[in-house]
Amino acid sequence: VQVVESGGGLVQPGGSLRLSCAVSGFTISDNSMSWVRQAPGKALEWVATIYKPGLGNLISYSESVRGRFTISRDNAKNTLYLQMNSLKPADTAVYYCARGVGIGAARGGPGTQVTVSS
């Protein structure tokens, strides 16, 4: 199994970024997939989940990102995405994609750093 997150960087408040998570070794469309993040000195935080087809392909977001972030997947590319708009300094963190639901979802990659600062 290989999981590689990308797309992070430095952005000004109010800006946008699109994170990608390329997966090999399992099929993301057969699994619920999540994004989680960890800010410096803080606990891991769940961001968003896209559920597997057996659970209706439902999507859920944490209160802190709802309305600003969008989780999606490209089944043909076996890639998970997180579109992040209206970014705030509080969104600064390392972002990980994970197999499963919530904070307990299994991370497999090194994450990608997102820094929101003027």
Describe the structure.
With 118 residues, this protein is mostly beta strands. Helix content is 0%, strand content 49%. The chain has no helices and 11 strands. Strands 2, 4, 5, 6, 9, 10 and 11 form a 7-stranded mixed β-sheet that branches. The protein has a 4-stranded antiparallel β-sheet with strand order 1-3-8-7, with no helix packed on it. Strand 4 and strand 5 form a beta hairpin. The radius of gyration is 13 Å and the shape is globular.
- Radius of gyration using CA atoms only: 13 Å
Low-pLDDT sequence parts: none
Instruction: Kindly report how far apart the N and C termini lie.
Output: 37 Å
Helix content: under 10%
Task: State the major sheet.
Answer: 7 strands, mixed
Number of strands: 11
User: What is the mean pLDDT?
Assistant: 95
Strand content: over 45%
How would you classify the helix and strand content by structural class?
A: mainly beta
The global form is globular
Helix-strand pattern: EEEEEEEEEEE
Give the helix tally.
0
Put the structure in a nutshell:
This protein is mainly β and 118 residues long. It has strands spanning 2-6, 9-11, 17-24, 33-38, 44-50, 59-61, 69-74, 79-84, 93-99, 106-107, 112-116.
List keywords for this structure.
118 residues, seven-stranded mixed sheet, mainly beta, 0% helix, globular
What is the element layout, followed by pairings?
Elements: E1 2-6, E2 9-11, E3 17-24, E4 33-38, E5 44-50, E6 59-61, E7 69-74, E8 79-84, E9 93-99, E10 106-107, E11 112-116
Parallel strand pairs: 2-11
Antiparallel strand pairs: 1-3, 3-8, 4-5, 4-9, 5-6, 7-8, 9-10, 9-11
